[in-house]
Every structure is written in structure tokens, then in C-alpha cells.
From TrEMBL:
Name recorded for this polypeptide: Hemerythrin-like domain-containing protein
Gene3D superfamilies, per database record: nmb1532 protein domain like
Domain Hemerythrin-like span(s) in chain numbering: 14-129
Length: 154
């Protein structure tokens, strides 16, 4: 039976839903599956990035991971390194798409794949480890520290 996500992490999971929508749009960029122009696709990505993704990464890296480190009996270093590496890759793709118009659709498609991979990894690997390590009452204390996404305000 699948364990229910801790209430304190639900805002991050909600943000992940919007990231998956963005990932799908990125994977469809430049294909017959979308009618968006290159400019519209890039503007959509930058809008999502600036309003939500940057803040979401901050929530995970500056709020959630330090809390995990305080309570983890044995830090899952390789998992945390993988998450941070994926964040670095995502940031570099966004930067490359924003600053360099060379092969933009290919970069957007790759970014879409990476963004989806990151969400799945965090939901399946990272969050369960954090929920196991951090006592519930301390997870509840971070609930109000996460940003509200621009799509739903959650």
C-alpha cells in the first residue's frame, strides 16, 4: 500500500505537478503536438522558471535538505548529490535556452525529459527518505516556509 505524502510536503508535491505540465510542454516544443511558436515556448519556460522553479529549488535546497540533515541518522549522500546535480543541470539548460538560441527545441526537449526525471526522482526517492528521517512535528514547522506557486496559490 502506497504511503500518503506528509501534509508538510504536499505543497512541494503540488509544485511538482506544475513542473510535470511544464515538462510535457517542453518535450512537445517544436513538434506537431503544439502550436506554440519558439518565442511563446521560451517565454512560457522563463515565466515558469522565474515565478516558480527558482523558488521551488530554494525551498528544497535551503529549507528541506538542511532539516533532513539535522534528523537523518545516516545521510543518504548519493541521493542528495543526485538531486542537487539534477537541479544544476536544469539550471544550466534554462540558462542555455535563455542566452543561446542554438538548437533551442532540442534543448527544450532535453530539459523536459530532465525536469520530469527530477520530479519522479524527488517524489519516489527523496521525499520518502525525508519523511522517514524527520519527525512529523518538525516537518509541520516548515509547512509555511514554502513559496506559493503562481498557478494555484498552493
Amino acid at each position: 500500500m502506497k504511503k500518503q505524502r506528509h501534509d508538510a510536503l504536499k505543497p512541494l508535491s503540488h509544485h511538482h505537478h506544475h513542473a510535470l505540465v511544464q515538462a510535457m510542454e517542453l518535450k512537445q516544443a517544436g513538434t506537431e503536438k503544439t502550436d506554440k511558436s519558439l518565442g511563446e515556448s521560451i517565454r512560457g519556460l522563463i515565466d515558469y522558471w522565474e515565478k516558480d522553479a527558482v523558488l521551488h529549488f530554494r525551498d528544497e535546497e535551503e529549507v528541506l535538505l538542511p532539516l533532513y540533515e539535522v534528523y537523518a541518522e545516516k545521510t543518504e549522500i548519493e541521493l542528495m548529490k543526485e538531486m542537487l546535480y539534477q537541479h544544476m543541470q536544469i539550471r544550466s539548460f534554462v540558462y542555455a535556452i535563455r542566452e543561446n538560441r542554438e538548437a533551442p527545441y532540442e534543448k527544450m526537449n532535453q530539459l523536459g525529459e530532465l525536469l520530469e526525471k527530477n520530479v519522479r526522482f524527488e517524489e519516489r526517492e527523496i521525499f520518502p527518505v525525508i519523511e522517514e528521517a524527520v519527525p512529523g512535528k518538525y516537518l509541520h514547522q516548515v509547512y509555511g516556509k514554502f513559496h506559493r506557486d503562481s498557478y494555484s496559490g498552493f
